[in-house]
Amino acid sequence: MTQAPKKVRFKFFRDIIAELKKVTWPTWRQTAYLTAVIIVICLVVGLILGGLDFGLTQAVKALVK
């Protein structure tokens, strides 16, 4: 016989809480460092893509003229 949906739902949330207690959360210092790394990577990739876009736009304009 299957469990009632309500009991299954509560078991699901109990399991989530149990798993979250097992997580090793990063320290504040690690979080700040990794956030800075992500921001720098995003800026570098943005500059590269912006440069490629600008260069290709200029190349197409030169070809069209």
Helix count from the secondary structure assignment? 2
- Gap from first CA to last CA: 77 Å
Question: Structural class of the secondary structure composition?
Answer: mainly alpha
Q: Helical amount among residues, as a percent range?
A: over 70%
Tell me the number of structural domains: 1
Morphology = elongated
Integer-rounded radius of gyration: 25 Å
Order of helices and strands: HH
Strand residue content: under 5%
Largest sheet, in brief, is: none
Count all strands and give the number.
0
Mean pLDDT: 91
Low-pLDDT stretches: none
Describe it.
The longest helix has about 35 residues, at about 30-65. This protein has one domain (about 5-65). It has helices at about 5-20, 30-65. By secondary structure, the protein is mainly alpha-helical. The chain is built from two helices and no strands. The radius of gyration is 25 Å and the shape is elongated.
Which tags fit this structure?
65 residues; mainly alpha; 85% helix; 0% strand
Question: What is this entry, summarized?
Answer:
Helices cover 85% and strands 0% of the residues. It has helices spanning 5-22, 28-64.
Secondary structure topology:
Blueprint: H1 5-22, H2 28-64
